[in-house]
Amino acid sequence: MPPSTDILAPVTALLLLTCAMWAWMYITRIPAIRKAGMELDPSLPKGQQMAELPATVRWKADNYNHLLEQPTLFYAVCLTLALLGAGQGLNVTLAWCYVGLRVVHSLHQALWNKIEVRFVLFALSSLVLIALILRAAMLVWS
Asked: Where do the domains of the chain lie, and which CATH numbers do they carry?
């Protein structure tokens, strides 16, 4: 089957979200470091100094890290579906649902970060991702 590239649009959208969160992280983190008068010390344990920053600053970095974790599965399954010629229809709809939920998750975590709400958003996006993975698995092993 020829590649189906429709599914690459949500992939690119999630990549753009990751870039936006990277920028937002540094736009808030660098001024907070300066305001706190921190002298960065590489000999301290990972994350110790950043833990001294206000929570609202740390939330952006936490979300950026989250966008480098589970979404790697999203990228892999979407590329798999595209290569299998199944990157359209319901698969694209599911991919856009996943991206939409991750956008809402990112905004929630970066701005309010109520853990119960964030967990629901993560769980819903995980279910959508699992559906995509199962659909790809059915194609690969059919």
From this structure: 5-140 (1.20.120.550)
